């Protein structure tokens, strides 16, 4: 079995693969913890789902939080006896990286691109709704070019609440209409439907610039809700990042 971890700024997604089948997954907060805390946490999750840690033979980590990456790596080594593979642009990804500064690319963006190409083909755009919203473009020749980065939905809501005197802190419930009839509904419309327009506009401009018609795959915590109002998102794949980790591990563990 394979342990996969996607460590983000807000959440850490943990999964267990048995072959190509994702048999368990958890979404944790990305809080600073020691290697012992993380190791005990992980073994507790495995025990809870009756997965023997002795059956786990490999581990791979994608991280945008270096201190947590180090703590998880040490915890996994200490409690499972496994050295973790860490995703970076120097691994064999199965796609060409055409980014001007490959070392700057967030590991999760590369992982998403690998999974999208494998399952949906090229050209493809991946939209990931995380702490930041990222769009990543892979050409018809399977070259990862880069993309766009925007503030995440929660970051936008918190900015409105924190930088204004009267706007409330709202939850991301679907608005009933585009033209909000209350302050809260207006904010939800502006964020959720507004982000759908942002995505559609960027997808159109990327497609025009590259003179291609890519498929658009969305993933991340708010993908489902924004996709309702998007005319460009073709598919929502909630396990895209975990699947990409599995594919990269298999490609590089040979």
UniProtKB/TrEMBL annotation:
<dbReference type="GO" id="GO:0004594">
    <property type="term" value="F:pantothenate kinase activity"/>
</dbReference>
<comment type="function">
    <text>Catalyzes the phosphorylation of pantothenate (Pan), the first step in CoA biosynthesis.</text>
</comment>
<dbReference type="InterPro" id="IPR004619">
    <property type="entry name" value="Type_III_PanK"/>
</dbReference>
<keyword id="KW-0479">Metal-binding</keyword>
<keyword id="KW-0067">ATP-binding</keyword>
<comment type="subunit">
    <text>Homodimer.</text>
</comment>
<dbReference type="Pfam" id="PF03309">
    <property type="entry name" value="Pan_kinase"/>
</dbReference>
<dbReference type="GO" id="GO:0005737">
    <property type="term" value="C:cytoplasm"/>
</dbReference>
<keyword id="KW-0547">Nucleotide-binding</keyword>
<feature type="binding site">
    <location>
        <begin position="6"/>
        <end position="13"/>
    </location>
    <ligand>
        <name>ATP</name>
    </ligand>
</feature>
<dbReference type="GO" id="GO:0046872">
    <property type="term" value="F:metal ion binding"/>
</dbReference>
<dbReference type="GO" id="GO:0005524">
    <property type="term" value="F:ATP binding"/>
</dbReference>
<keyword id="KW-0963">Cytoplasm</keyword>
<feature type="binding site">
    <location>
        <position position="131"/>
    </location>
    <ligand>
        <name>ATP</name>
    </ligand>
</feature>
<dbReference type="GO" id="GO:0015937">
    <property type="term" value="P:coenzyme A biosynthetic process"/>
</dbReference>
<keyword id="KW-0808">Transferase</keyword>
<keyword id="KW-0418">Kinase</keyword>
<feature type="active site" description="Proton acceptor">
    <location>
        <position position="108"/>
    </location>
</feature>
<feature type="binding site">
    <location>
        <position position="99"/>
    </location>
    <ligand>
        <name>substrate</name>
    </ligand>
</feature>
<comment type="pathway">
    <text>Cofactor biosynthesis; coenzyme A biosynthesis; CoA from (R)-pantothenate: step 1/5.</text>
</comment>
<feature type="binding site">
    <location>
        <position position="183"/>
    </location>
    <ligand>
        <name>substrate</name>
    </ligand>
</feature>
<feature type="binding site">
    <location>
        <begin position="106"/>
        <end position="109"/>
    </location>
    <ligand>
        <name>substrate</name>
    </ligand>
</feature>
<keyword id="KW-0173">Coenzyme A biosynthesis</keyword>
<feature type="binding site">
    <location>
        <position position="128"/>
    </location>
    <ligand>
        <name>K(+)</name>
    </ligand>
</feature>
<keyword id="KW-0630">Potassium</keyword>
<comment type="similarity">
    <text>Belongs to the type III pantothenate kinase family.</text>
</comment>
<protein>
    <recommendedName>
        <fullName>Type III pantothenate kinase</fullName>
        <ecNumber>2.7.1.33</ecNumber>
    </recommendedName>
</protein>
<dbReference type="InterPro" id="IPR043129">
    <property type="entry name" value="ATPase_NBD"/>
</dbReference>
């Amino acid at each position: 079995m394979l342990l996969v971890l996607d460590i983000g700024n807000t959440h850490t997604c943990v999964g267990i693969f048995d072959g190509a089948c994702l048999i368990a997954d958890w979404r944790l907060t990305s809080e600073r913890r020691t290697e012992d805390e993380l190791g005990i946490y992980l073994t507790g999750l495995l025990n809870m789902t009756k997965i023997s840690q002795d059956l786990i033979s490999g581990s791979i980590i994608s991280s945008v939080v270096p201190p947590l990456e180090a703590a998880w790596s040490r915890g996994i080594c200490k409690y499972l006896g496994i050295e973790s593979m860490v995703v970076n642009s120097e691994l064999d990804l199965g796609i060409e990286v055409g980014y001007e500064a490959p070392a700057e690319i967030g590991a999760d963006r590369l992982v998403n691109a690998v999974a999208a190409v494998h399952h949906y083909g090229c050209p493809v755009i991946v939209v990931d709704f995380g702490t930041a919203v990222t769009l990543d473009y892979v050409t018809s020749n399977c070259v990862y070019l880069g993309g766009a980065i925007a503030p995440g939905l929660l970051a936008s809501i918190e900015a409105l609440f924190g930088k204004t005197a009267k706007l409330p802190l709202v939850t991301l419930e679907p608005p009933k209409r585009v033209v909000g009839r209350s302050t809260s509904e207006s904010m939800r419309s502006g964020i959720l439907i507004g982000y759908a327009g942002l995505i559609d506009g960027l997808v159109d401009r990327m497609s025009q610039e590259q003179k291609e018609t890519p498929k658009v795959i969305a993933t991340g915590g708010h993908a489902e809700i924004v996709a309702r109002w998007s005319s460009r998102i073709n598919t929502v794949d909630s396990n895209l990042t975990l699947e990409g980790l599995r594919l990269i591990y298999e490609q590089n563990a040979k």
